[in-house]
Amino acid sequence: MVHDGQSGARVVLLTGGAGFVGSHTAIELLERGDSVVVVDNCVNAVKGGDDKPVALQRVEELTGKTVKYHEASMLDCEALDNVFKQYKVDVVIHFAALKSVGESVDQPLRYYGNNITGTLNLLQAMSTAGVKRLVFSSSATVYGTPQYLPIDESHPTGQGITNPYGQTKFMCEQIMMDLARADPEWRVVLLRYFNPVGAHPSGRIGEDPRGIPNNLMPTIAQVAVERRPNLYVYGNDFETVDGTGVRDYVHVVDLARGHVAALSKLWSKESTGTLIYNLGTGQGISVLQMIEAFSRACGKKLAYKITSRRKGDVGTVVATCELAKKELGWVAERSLEDMCVDTWRWQSNNPNGFSI
Ligand code: UFG
Question: Quick check: CB of 26 below 6 Å from ligand 1?
């Protein structure tokens, strides 16, 4: 019997499923009736009473369904093989990766080891188990410094990437494309995220970075909840609407739904080899516009200081997502206001994230 993964229920393995995008994707999959198996090493997650990440406990609470959870590193080949022996996995969504840009510059071996070797181990385990459907959590970082705007999927990749984190995303894409070229049974979707923000509208799960956040949205949210004292705007001399950096922010629930759309695509007839999609809104928002929108959402004026540009930052990064619309039937539906209101609900209800 042909397994109809387009409409039927599937067994979906999420590596890094306890993370920000992974946990939101788990909700969307469970709600559509899929079974979810998570493998996560928990290095960036908070664990709850029964040793399960709190994020996954809350996914279960929100959906009323069970998430099968295995704490394991992508560097543990035996553990990976065992997961594939234990479940009849139909498809893998590979989120697991270290993702701090600055940290990757200081710890290149850890980043290459974890992200590249981890991915190779996963692909080998999938190959051994005969599981050849894969969605990969890639990033706009593969485009390097934009050569034109908005960025489409044909934009050159791998040029001018300034940090090991970005290199690992680019290299993983290359590995997957080579694999799909060598063996036509592989069906791969690379999803290039722009700037994921927001939180589940329940306020129960959201982004919970360890230590000092690197990214704008969690920084604004932590300043708004008075967990952090200062909000710095890195540069106001870019060629943008108000001089501050412009990015394409996309709500994490929209992003999660993009993964569900990508999975359906993997069972469609047109899906062969590697397919690549940008996931963003196509709309550019400046740092000051984001601060302003968040101030409205949280009902207080947020003080900020303008400081010098951050090394490696560019003025504008904005996607065109026409291809995802055309081929996946996916568009980002949530507004800037939704992104801010949902982030604020999560942060104000959980000032310390998943830690009590
Ligand atoms: N910014 C500030 N203050 C802060 C943090 C950020 O002004 O405290 C500015 C940045 O200079 C930039 C914008 O806010 O103009 C967004 O910065 P983020 O760090 O939130 O996001 P980036 O676009 O720099 O990085 C994102 C992802 C990376 C990815 C990169 C390139 O977080 O994983 O896009 O695709 F590598």
Answer: no
